[in-house]
Amino acid sequence: MVAGPLRGLRVLDLSSVVLGPMAAQYLGDMGADVIKVEAPEGDVTRMIGPRRSEKMGALFLANNRNKRSIVLDLKTEAGRVALMRLAAASDVLIHSVRTSAAERIGLSYPTLSALNPRLVYCHLKGFSDAGLYAGKPAYDDIVQALSGLAMLQTVVGGEPRYMPTILADKVTAVHAAYAIMLALFHRERTGEGQLVGLPMLETMVAFNAAEHLGGCIFEPPAGPMGYEPVRRAMRRPFRTKDGYLCFMPYTDGHWRQFVELIGAADLAADPGFMTMKGRQADIGRVWAEVGRQLLTRTNAEWLALCGSSDIPMAVVNDLEDLLQDPHLESVGFWQLLEHRTEGWLRLPANPIEMSVTPPSIRLPPPLLGEHTAEVLAEFGCETAA
Across the chain, how many H-helices and E-strands are there? Predict the structure, then answer.
């Protein structure tokens, strides 16, 4: 197995639930030695979702591969002493403890950076410590509500709804892994570690602003906030005779191909369809016509008709369809890994493609405290804490 680009890097993952564990898992996939530090009761996700064994729930299994688990009780002196030993000899520390609580247990950045000036210390939190919401509890739903994401769902559901995925946790996890890499790059140049803060609310507002800042990107505003196709509920899959399609003729070339394939001479002569400016001027009429056209054929018929074109199009999959998706099968996306207590596990591959140092799945998700003695011995701790 090819070693990943982060081989030799030691990461302490003191986080729980999804945000921190997912970020740490990304680093583990790239070769880092990730040590998951858990309280005696373990990460709460060990008890969430289907499971074959106690404290090995599906949500935990999905976000904690390529890690070793140790148990430390940070409420005890012995546990805190052991953590200090680990932090002094590690490269990265990730935690999601609120700032005030972190200070009480000696987990603050000033304390740990004094022990290890090269440490990249990543603090995951709901809100920036510099703002009015500093220290308030935050979960994915809270951030979806505050960031405007839940209200955006009114265009399709008629009322505010949370996205049916923990989007704020997962988007912030990607940002966290990215930010840690930037801090490590800085350390390679200077030898200096630093504090990396990842506030969920600010991350998601920036994420949503990419298209939804709209006219308010100007000061004074040149129009309302919001991306018009979303605000008017036009951005959606289209019904066909037997299912749904994502159908996205985007460029003028795509539209020319579409009207030629369906033999719509009237549309071919209509500048409201054939030019980007025309379509933007009356986008509702354009998509209404697309909807009428797509109802005339089945999914298979549309795929066959448009298969030789480069019009962006895809069948709308159910979740279960992903397990047999022919493209995912062709790239070996779903990987089977045998766990010594859980049997065979199906895990998604890390999607990053690297020609020399690709990611890999080396270790199955660990049992609670499975590596406590092993890891503490490596750090010179005589007994488990």
Answer: 19, 11
Give the pLDDT of residue 60: 98
pLDDT in tens, 328-379: 999 999 999 999 999 999 999 999 999 999 999 999 999 999 999 999 999 9
- What angle is formed at CA 317 by the lines to CA 311 and CA 322, rounded to 5 degrees? 115
Helix axis angle, 299-306 to 252-262, nearest 10°: 110
Dihedral of CA atoms 296, 297, 302, 306 in degrees, nearest 10, equals -50
| 321 noted as active-site residue | no
Task: Return all residues near 180 (Cβ < 8 A) that are at least 6 apart.
Answer: 23, 27, 92, 94, 120, 122, 196
What is the chain's mean pLDDT, rounded?
A: 94
C-alpha distance from residue 208 to each of 57, 159, 175, 223, 249 (Å)? 32, 19, 14, 17, 24
Return the ∠ at Cα 174 (arms to 9 and 139), rounded to 5°. Answer: 115
Mean per-residue pLDDT for 252-281? 90
Q: Is 206 left (phi over 0), alpha (psi -120 to 50) or beta?
A: alpha
Phi, psi angles (nearest 5°) of residue 336: -95, 130
Contacts of 104 (CB under 8 A, 6+ apart): none
Nearest to 20, CA basis, from 145, 179, 162, 150: 179
The gap from C-alpha 138 to its chain's centroid, in whole angstroms, comes to 17
Query: Sorting pLDDT into bands at 50, 70 and 90, what band is 273?
Result: confident
Of 44, 318, 17, 11, the residue nearest 143 (C-alpha):
17
Q: What pLDDT sits at residue 219? A: 96
Given pLDDT bands bounded at 50, 70 and 90, which one contains residue 233?
low
169, 252, 266, 318: the catalytic one is 169
- What is the reported pTM? 0.92
List domains and CATH numbers for the chain.
10-207+330-378 (3.40.50.10540), 238-315 (3.30.1540.10)
Residues 346-359: b if buried by 16+ CB within 10 A, e if exposed: ebebbeeeeeeebb
70 phi, psi to nearest 5 deg = -125, 155
For the sheet with 313-315, list strands across it: 238-239, 244-247, 313-315
